[in-house]
Fold this protein.
Amino acid sequence: MSHLPQCFDEGQVEVKRLVQTQTALIWLAKQIFGPGSTPQDLVDHLNGSDLLEEYPISPSGLTRMREFSRKLALGVPNKFTMCPVNSVAVLLHWRVVGNLLNLLTEEQRARFKAIFSLGLVPQLQSLASVTSPKEVGPTALVTAKPLFRQEEAEEGPMEAETPPEMPSPAMEQGLDVLVLDEGASEFDGQSLAGPISPQAIDVHCHLDRLQLRQFGKYLESRSLEDTLKPGPQQHPDQSFQLVSVVSVHCDPGTYPKVTGQDTRIHHAIGLHPKKADQFNQAIKEKICHLPKQPQVVALGEIGIDQSTPPASWVRQREVFQSLLKLKPSGLPVVVHCRGNAMDEKKNFGAVAHCLAIGILDRHCQESKADSVSDMAIHVHCFGGDYQVLEAWLVKFPRAYFGFTGMVARFTSQQKRALRRVPEDRLLLETDAPYLSPRNNRISTPNDIGEVAYLVSRIRGTTVESVLATTTANSQALYHF
Ligand SMILES: [Zn+2]
Ligand SMILES: [Zn+2]
């Protein structure tokens, strides 16, 4: 199969390769069936046609399919079959994926091979803009701009502390002159050749609250660039392309009325636990309706926050349970979990986390739509220790963990937990306008590079690797 990229090679079983293969399948689905399509659409297409016959799968192929299913928590069937295709993992077989390549143009096939043979996360949006500029909408990428930093203090939620020194990141050594293989050179030298910056996704920021801080009011139509402009810009040493954000709306007053205008902005809709007492029929109806709108990718943030007076905790639990019932099957949930001062200080919020895990577990037992084995959960702003991390993963294998600028102030136990987060479960977020990696400053999604840098130092890897992994994970979780 001359058009298949290296990430489909049978011998590849490391997590990074498997995540890259999954990203390749998502890319393929989007090329064939359009935005929002998933690898399951590829499976459905094959099963709806009679293109495939049963064919023996080699032992190394079977190992890879099993690893893919296990590491990406897809469920492992007793036997993998091609007729019908009984798992997304079967798409890893050259014979199966080859049938799908026939649906691509020659140029798309060459592009597919070039990108996924390079060991880098693909430029999903910039590729799309080359193939079909009209589908992508406004400028696909926010690129590095001259430094414009707001040094003055803005009241943040964290205690003042000396900000960490910012040494030159490993990124300086650069990825990034891509060497094209033969397949690529025939179609495109421009979009792939030459230096590029790694892509970054901020999977949790509050653009509404950020605008309130920056401009005094929230304007839904304000562009991402304009929203970010008055705040801190990218650190000059950190070149990355902010390709997407998930803007979290948990204040009923600023739920978006129109979504889908800016293809880089995705939305999560929820109710912050601190606002649980506002929950009423009107909010319930809005939350039921909003997930049907374009680019609404999650329910949340919802959860537990025991930094409030204990009298409010019972209501928080009830509202958390009620909100979960409104979630359509398959939609990820963004969970906020914060214990009281003692719990946070002594247990890294273990009491609050266990409470949230218990409520989610009960929800899965009572719900027909969700199960513990496949419920997609984004535990946002994670600051737990290893025990807390384990508690989540034992119960919910599809729990992802978002890390913010708070990592700049992590204790050794929290750092240990961060090191133990599985590669395919790691996410980056800013929680802008809060939790800047540098205290006393408003944060914006432009801080995501600094968060990546701090995470890379703790995990003993490079910024590029953290950005590649977390971009692929964000796309896998939120399907964009
Ligand atoms: Zn939160
Ligand atoms: Zn938040």
